[in-house]
Design goal:
Strand content: under 5%
Number of helices: 17
Mean pLDDT: 86
Structural class: mainly alpha
Helix content: over 70%
Shape: elongated
Low-confidence stretches: 1-5
């Protein structure tokens, strides 16, 4: 009997979208899998040939990581990739909604696919549409378990991920975070250090900043402020434009009472981020120091007022704009921003 696959495909596609809207995820994914099976059939691959092709893939990659699969194998690979990717995207969307139990279920579903179709899932023609690899899914699962307070199981996931890929920095970060949650702080610091060591002599900017920032956070909890500052300094060597690292370093310097170093840090911040007017605490120390030598500098007063406004210090912002407007009554920015600060105070 002839079956119009195009018509069946369209019906299934509409059904899949409707089921997703209704949050009937299991039915929706089953529907999506049927769509992919149609995709495979349309390309001439019969069910009876799939085990043979899967074996070809497994044996091919086992013998040679750079193995070039046949046309049929690539089609199956793309099909497996699409099935895995839709599960991954669903799980990630549930994470964003903080529906961790449901997300965990779909990460587990994805890991089951890796167990049966591991090599198939690795094939894709477009990397940006590729399903994640097994170690990435394990780290995602570990994060869900952490959110649910299942720390021991989370650590198992991270350890397995690192066994599969010892250079996956996200696993070091997440594992260290869980160890910190368990108050195993020395082990957490050692884990962050291990991640940094793996990537020597030149870890990427992203890896270095994240690991050093995480290590510094744990050190701060133990009031090891000098060591934390060293971590921030190293992080800024990798990325001198990360305002979050400047903020964290300045907060620690404030605890140490090192006002001169706070001013020097702000000097570097403004050198690397010239137009910064953000919300870093203690920034008024920097502007007060500048105003000591040039108390009537309108530009400095205006920037200080903006920063105080951004910090929610509206009374101090108004006082600063008042000083500015005594010097220059026609300063438009000062007039407008003072008005905005007064409006905030009146609420």
């Amino acid at each position: 009997m002839y079956v119009n696959l195009d018509n069946e495909f369209d019906k299934l596609e509409a059904k899949y979208e409707k089921l997703m809207d209704l949050e009937k995820f299991k039915e929706a994914i089953a529907c999506h899998d049927k769509l992919i099976d149609i995709y495979v059939k349309e390309r001439g691959i019969k069910d009876r040939d799939i085990p043979k092709i899967t074996t070809e893939l497994f044996e091919g990659f086992k013998k040679n990581p750079f193995y070039l699969p046949s046309k049929e194998a690539r089609i199956l690979g793309l099909a497996g990739n699409k099935k895995a990717l839709v599960r991954y995207e669903l799980a990630c969307s549930l994470v964003e909604e903080e529906r961790y139990e449901e997300a965990l279920e779909w990460f587990n579903s994805l890991l089951e696919m890796f167990s049966s179709d591991h090599w198939i899932l690795r094939i894709t023609e477009t990397p940006e549409e590729n399903a994640p690899e097994r170690h990435e899914v394990l780290v995602k699962k570990g994060h869900m378990l952490r959110q649910l307070g299942k720390y021991a199981e989370a650590l198992e996931c991270y350890d397995l991920a690192l066994k599969i890929n010892p250079k996956y920095h996200e696993a070091y970060l997440r594992k260290g975070d869980v160890l910190y949650d368990l108050r195993r702080d020395e082990m957490a610091i050692a884990t962050f250090d291990q991640g940094l060591k793996i990537f020597k002599p030149s870890p990427s900017v992203d890896i270095a900043v994240k690991l050093l920032g995480a290590k510094a956070y744990v050190l701060k909890q133990h009031e090891k402020y000098e060591e934390a500052v060293e971590c921030y300094d190293k992080a800024l060597m990798y990325d001198p434009h990360d305002d979050r690292i400047y903020a964290s370093k300045i907060a620690v310097l404030h605890k140490l009472g090192k006002h001169e170093e706070i001013i020097a840090t702000f000097d570097k911040l403004f050198k690397n981020i010239p137009n910064y007017t953000g919300t870093i605490n203690h920034i008024e120390i920097y502007y007060n120091k500048l105003l000591e030598t040039n108390p009537n500098n309108v530009d400095i007063l205006y920037k200080k007022g903006q920063v105080l406004y951004n910090l929610g210090e509206y009374e101090e912002a108004v006082a600063t704009f008042d000083k500015l407007l005594v010097i220059n009554p026609n300063h438009y920015g000062g007039q407008i921003d003072k008005k905005h600060a007064l409006e905030k105070l009146s609420k």
